Amino acid sequence: MTTASDNSSSRRALTCRADKVHTVTLVLPGGREAVFRAGSSKSIYDIASYAGVHLPASCRMGTCTSCVCKLLAGHVKQPQQSCLPPPLLKQGYVAICCATPTSDVTLLTHQGAAVRKWKAEQPAKGK
Ligand code: FES
Description:
CATH architecture: Roll
Number of domains: 1
Number of strands: 7
Structural class: alpha+beta
Order of helices and strands: HEEHEEHEEEH
Bound molecules: FE2/S2 (inorganic) cluster
Mean pLDDT: 88
Largest sheet: 5 strands, mixed
């Protein structure tokens, strides 16, 4: 059985004291929303997992696009991702396995297929 105080303790355990904590809203398939608080010590993906929100992921190091979401509002930091070229970053795509919020954020989940489609449509380099 989970009590309100259990939830509060769990949330505290997910962030370090020096963290600035932000509200993360994930818009899931079907329009459902998952809302939780996240600092900068864990990725948005990890915090979502701890909160019981199961999202697609594979590499968990920013290389595969499985976890990619689209930023609808706010700002994130994702210095270690390498799967999103500048045009996709400019469109707001975020590899949440290696991203942390720098403000309150709203993200549309399950965007990996859209990113892979965009990549497949790009002309091959060197042709
Ligand atoms: S799980 Fe591979 S980029 Fe996030």
